[in-house]
Every structure is written in C-alpha cells, then in structure tokens.
Amino acid sequence: MSLKELLAAFSPDQWDIPVTARKVDVVRNEYEMPTHQHTAGQLLLTLRGSTACRVFEDLWLVPPQCAVWVPPNTPHCNRITARSSVCLLFIRQEHIRLLPATCCTLSISPLVRELIRHVAALPPEDMLAERGERLIQVLLDELSRMPATGLRLPVSSDIRLQSIAESITEAPAERKDLSAWARHIGMSRRSLARLVVRETGLSFGRWRQQLLLVMAIQMLSDGISVQQTAWDLGYESVTAFITMFKKALGASPAKYVQRYFATGTESGS
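RESULT FIELD:
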C-alpha cells in the first residue's frame, strides 16, 4: 500500500480496537505527510531506509531498528525517504499507560519488530479475536521495555537559528566557528551560545553535530558513498566522520549502509 493510498483509506481513530498497524512502502520519491494528529498514540517503525518525524520544535530521526513514539493528540509531521519501508502502529489512549508521556525514539528489538510487522499484516477485525488480544498484550508488554535513543534534532522557532540551520544545510562543508556565526547574525559570541542552549538544550557544537548527523543519514540513504558524505559535510578526514557516526549510532557508516540501506533488506540482519 502506498502512503497516499494509506492516507486516503485509513484513519487510526476509525477502529474501536486497542492496536492497529499498517506497513507502508515509499518507492521512488521522498514523501512528507502534512502536519496532523489523532487520538491514538503513534509508533513509526523504520524497516528500511530513513524517516523523520517533526513534533513541535524537535526533529526526531528514525533509522532502521528504531521507532519514534508520538503520544495521542500530538501534532506531528512524518517524512519518509525514497526506497524506505515503515510500519505505522497506532495504540488507543487507554492502552498506553506503560509508554512514555513525551515524544522519543526507541531502539526496537527483533521480537518487537516482527510482532509489529505481523499486526500490520492482519485485518483490523482479527485483532478483536482472542488470538489478537494475546498478541496485543505481548506486543505492549515488550514495547514498554524498549530503551530510548538520542536521535533528536531540536529545531528552533527563532529566526536567527533557523537562518544558521539553513546556511549549514546549504553549505555544510563551510565549518564556521561560533564567533563567525555570531558575526553573521549580528550577535556576540556569548549571546549566540546562550541562545542555542536556551532554544535547543544543546551546546552549539552538539546542535551542529546533530544536524550533520541528520544530513549524513539522508545522504547515505540516497546512495552517496561514505567518503563523499564525509567530504560534503566538511570533515577533515573520513576517519573523523566515521568516529562521529559510530559514536552516535553504534555502527560505522559502511556497516550501517550494509545492514539497513541494501536493496531488499528490512530486518537489519
């Protein structure tokens, strides 16, 4: 089922059952859902490729083997890159008591991943049967045990930080330091440093690194080589880029690509 077909034919709030799910494949072009919300909580699980979810002023990265949790009645926007496969799991409010109260990314175990894929393959009415109820209970119990990850990029509403983010995105290889960016927007170095911390909760260096990580995942998912990605992002060496990437995601870029962006793979094995 394409994403457009899903949006046209399926609403998570239409089913009076604890859990529903749908698997979505985006083949050719990146697709971005408009901002929306629903009374059910949403878990967006990436099977292959790369996805992101924007919630208020935060951008949450969702690489393979991870999912982003969006609590009920929370406005959000999902972006799914080309050649990606995802599962959208919707959980009614009365069944989410063990899940986080705020948006977060979760590292998903193979068991939970396969449970979600199985639920997505079943007609919603099958979830009302006794077997479906048992499946839901196991899924919710296991899901509540999944650890949170730190794949979050704070996106400020401050026009000055938006300008910096846009400039970095357009020319990431230009590694201006904090003082240069402060001059660029007409602020003192100290004032800009305080602004970044106040708006994002991160130091300027950490915030820029998270932005570059977002770009790296998108570039790698588009088939750009590790070496080219490192150069395009302005790293002094491929080794420096690999070190940053591995520290953030637990795998080198090459292994990450081999596991998750290879054509036809979804399980990450």
